[in-house]
């Protein structure tokens, strides 16, 4: 049952509320899950983002890749208030009081309709839960709609266990955004590093969790479902853009390792095959190395005069250490249907178990000199 308290303001406390009303409402909500309504007080707002004439941030693409499902994913350094997409994801709080950070920037640029619709939703349905998302109109923003998503918030002095507990909530937050995209048949969506910054989620882990979740979501999607054309990871500040780019290159980008094959025409005829593998120290799969030198070490028993090294793009995805006898990657957790994408042996050997994860690019022919 909700409890309502009326607090009268006098003197010094009245001046504080006049100067910091939106920020105070935000703090009360994030710390105590309380919704504060300020009545009869003329709140002195700071100069708006438009009034401050913020310098326009030029849009800069840092990374782009196409997922197997056909969805493009890209990383941008840009301003979400001017980014032209179907939907922009907003890092919201539970009460949808957009008083600071990205939420305030979107409201300042988009006009009062955004906060008005948010207030109507909270008054009708109550505050949002962590990981929940809703859609409102975008006002005068160049996007069509805003997806307000509530990511997990950590205390300033968080522990490792706090991060581990928050990770599933951040994953569910991203799922909620992508579900809204599917449900509303949106073609493009811009997603910031939700829960980083003011919500204290460690930036590197935040980026990795967001990127991994997008990858997992579209790996599980059916071709019959609506799929967007592109997911944009958009942030203004350089450290966040850099971490998002790193995470995408690590998790999404195809690698170009090497494999030794017995005949140069073999790959074009039958593709990559586990029978070309060296002694199977890390599983009965298809082996690749990061350099020709390492390939020579791995396939050291080959005594042919000509050696053929295939350079390939390989989707290694989420990987774990391999072991002898594996015919499939091991399960990620208790569910045997959810498995790693590949296994590895040290820092320079990758093993896949499905040939469609590798695309041959070109062949290097080497001749042994006796």
UniProtKB/TrEMBL annotation:
Per UniProt, residues of the Macro domain are 60-252
Q: Name one GO biological process term.
A: negative regulation of gene expression
Key words, A-Z: Glycosyltransferase, NAD, Nucleus, Transferase
Q: What InterPro entries does this protein map onto?
A: Macro_dom (IPR002589), Macro_dom-like (IPR043472), Mono-ARTD/PARP (IPR052056)
Answer whether the UniProt record assigns the keyword Transferase to this protein: yes
Provide the GO MF annotations for this entry.
NAD+ poly-ADP-ribosyltransferase activity; NAD+-protein mono-ADP-ribosyltransferase activity; transcription corepressor activity; ubiquitin-like protein ligase binding
Q: Which domain of life is it from?
A: Eukaryota
Q: Which GO terms describe its cellular component?
A: cytoplasm; nucleus
Q: Which Pfam families match?
A: Macro
Q: Which PROSITE patterns match?
A: MACRO
The places in or outside the cell where this protein is found are:
Nucleus
The main place the protein resides is nucleus
Statement: the UniProt record of this protein carries the keyword NAD: yes
What name does the UniProt record give this protein?
Macro domain-containing protein
What lineage, starting at the top, does this entry show?
Eukaryota, Metazoa, Chordata, Craniata, Vertebrata
């Amino acid at each position: 049952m909700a409890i309502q308290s009326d607090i009268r303001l006098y003197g010094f406390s009245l001046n504080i509320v006049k100067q910091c009303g939106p920020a105070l409402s935000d703090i009360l909500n994030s710390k105590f899950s309380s919704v504060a309504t300020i009545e009869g007080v003329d709140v002195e707002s700071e100069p708006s983002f438009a009034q401050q004439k913020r310098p326009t941030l030029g849009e800069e693409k840092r990374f782009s890749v196409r997922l197997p499902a056909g969805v493009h994913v890209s990383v941008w350094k840009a301003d979400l208030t001017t980014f032209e997409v179907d939907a922009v994801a907003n890092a919201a709080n539970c009460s949808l009081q957009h008083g600071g950070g990205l939420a305030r920037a979107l409201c300042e640029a988009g006009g009062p309709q955004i906060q008005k619709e948010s207030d109507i939703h909270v008054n009708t349905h109550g505050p949002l839960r962590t990981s929940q998302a809703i859609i409102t109109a975008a006002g005068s923003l160049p996007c069509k709609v805003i997806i307000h998503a509530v990511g997990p918030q950590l205390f300033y002095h968080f522990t490792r266990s706090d991060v581990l507990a928050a990770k599933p909530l951040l994953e569910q937050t991203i799922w909620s955004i992508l579900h809204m995209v599917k449900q509303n048949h949106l073609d493009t969506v811009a997603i910031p590093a939700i829960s980083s910054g003011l919500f204290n989620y460690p930036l590197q882990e935040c980026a990795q969790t967001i990127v991994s979740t997008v990858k997992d979501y579209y790996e599980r999607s059916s071709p019959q479902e609506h799929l967007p054309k592109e997911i944009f990871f958009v942030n203004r500040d350089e450290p966040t853009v850099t971490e998002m780019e790193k995470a995408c290159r690590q998790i999404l980008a195809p690698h170009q390792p090497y494999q030794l094959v017995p005949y140069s025409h073999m790959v074009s005829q039958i593709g990559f095959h586990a029978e070309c593998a060296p002694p199977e120290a890390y599983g009965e799969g298809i082996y690749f190395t990061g350099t020709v030198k390492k390939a020579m070490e791995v396939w050291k028993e080959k005594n042919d005069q000509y050696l053929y090294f295939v350079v390939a793009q390989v989707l290694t995805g989420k990987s774990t250490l391999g072991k002898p006898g594996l015919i499939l990657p091991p399960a990620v957790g208790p569910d045997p249907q959810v498995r790693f994408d590949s296994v590895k042996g040290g820092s320079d050997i990758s093993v896949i178990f499905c040939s469609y994860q590798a695309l041959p690019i070109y062949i290097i022919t080497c001749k042994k000199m006796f």
